[in-house]
Every structure is written in structure tokens, then in C-alpha cells.
Amino acid sequence: MHTDPAQYVRSAIRSVPDWPKPGVTFRDITPVLQDPRSFRVLVDLFVYRYMQQKLDLVAGVDARGFILGSVLAYELNLGFVPVRKKGKLPFRTVAEEYSLEYGNSSVEMHADSVRPGQRVLLIDDLIATGGTMMAASKLLQRLGANVIEAAAIIDLPDLGGAQAIRDSGLPVYTVCQFTNLPDPA
Predict the structure, then answer these.
(1) Mean pLDDT over all residues of the chain?
(2) What pLDDT score does 107 carry?
(3) Bridge partner list, 14
(4) How many domains does the chain have?
(5) Domain enclosing residue 106, as ranges
(6) Where is the signal peptide (predicted)?
(7) Is residue 182 part of a domain?
(8) Is the CB of residue 105 less than 8 Å from the CB of residue 83?
(9) For residues 68 and 126, is the Cβ–Cβ distance under 8 A?
(10) Of 49, 75, 101, 119, which is the active-site residue?
(11) What is the mean pLDDT of residues 89-113?
(12) Does the pLDDT value for residue 12 go beyond 60?
């Protein structure tokens, strides 16, 4: 039995070796979401962290950030803003491009998603290289939002994303980390 809630959530995350390509271990959060207890513990970790902060919105990054972000927004009685992949929003949008390992991508938001000065929590499931999270943060800031923190379930510190986000001046919170080192037994 786990007494540490973060360790309890971490233990429910499935590691899938060699997916989507050889040498990559995919960290799958669906077992956490499928189990009511681990999902509740995960949500509660975020609720307890942010319930005393003065926030206006939660912005969730496409697509798994929508799951946690919308539940968290509901629990904190805040609005939710989706940060989508390019071409998925039907109204007037603004976009921010970012670099991937092989090429570029971009994220978009409706131009009227946030008002200047609103305090926003930015959330996703995982921070790898940090490119998507940093692009989403820049986009929110371009619209006038004050991004309070970047949050995720998982940090992959070997890829340097969380540190890059911190180096940009944005605080980062993650529930757990997975490194390339063997998992403890």
C-alpha cells in the first residue's frame, strides 16, 4: 500500500517499451484514468495545490491535457480553455509554432479565449522536450494572460523540457518523474 499519493499515481502509469518506435518507452496514463481511485488521487493532488491560488482559467494542451484540465477546472470552479493542434478550432484563432525533432508544429487558441490579465494554469499530461508547453505558454501570454505555472502528471527530466520551461521563467509542477534509469522494484 502506498502512503505517498504521487507514488501511488506513478505506480498506476503503464510503461510501454518500444512504442511508438524502438528505444522509446511510452508512459501511458490511461490506467490512471480508468481506475477511479488513482484518478481521484491524481485530481486531488492538483486541486490541493491550486485551490488557494487566485486563478481565472485552466488551459489544457491537446489532447490529454483536456482530460485533466477540464476536470481540474470544474473542481476549482474555473473556466477551461483548450489549446489545440492547428486546424481544429472553428472560430478566429491565433497560433504559435514550435520545433519538433523532425520539423515544426503549431498550437492554436481562439482569439477570444482569454482576457488580458487573467491568471491561467497551463496543464498537460507529460513534459518531454517542453516545446508544446512553451508554445502554449507563449500563445497565452500573447493574448495577455498571466501564466502562473506549467503543470503535468509526468516529467521526463532526461529530455530537459521541464528545465527549459523553468529557464524561460515559468514555474513547473509535475506529480512524478520517469528517467532512463531502471524503475525501482
Answers:
(1) 94
(2) 96
(3) 28
(4) 1
(5) 5-177
(6) none
(7) no
(8) no
(9) no
(10) 101
(11) 90
(12) yes
Sheet holding 79-85, edge to edge: 93-100, 103-110, 79-85, 57-61, 119-127, 146-155, 172-177
Cβ neighbors of 35 (< 8 A, separation 6 or more) are: 12
* 155-164, Cβ contacts within 8 angstroms, sequence gap of 24 or more: 155/126, 155/127, 156/27, 156/126, 156/127, 156/128, 159/128, 159/129, 159/130, 160/129, 160/130, 161/127, 161/128, 161/129, 161/130, 161/131, 161/133, 162/127, 162/130, 163/130, 164/129, 164/130, 164/134
- Give 42-84 pLDDT, tens digit per residue: 999 999 999 999 999 999 999 999 999 999 999 999 999 999 9
Would residue 64 show up in a list of annotated catalytic residues for this protein?
A: yes
The sign of the CA dihedral 141, 63, 97, 19 is positive
In this model, does residue 162 exceed pLDDT 50? yes
CATH number at residue 61: 3.40.50.2020
Q: Write down the pTM of the prediction.
A: 0.93
pLDDT of residue 101 exceeding 80, the answer is no
Catalytic residue among 10, 37, 64, 96: 64
Q: Is residue 184 part of a domain?
A: no
To the query of whether residue 92 is one of the catalytic residues in this protein, the response is no
In order, the DSSP letters of 87-125 are: T--SS-EEEEEEEETTEEEEEEEETTSS-TT-EEEEEEE
Contact 154, 27 (CB under 8 A): yes
Cell numbers standing for residue 64: 490529454
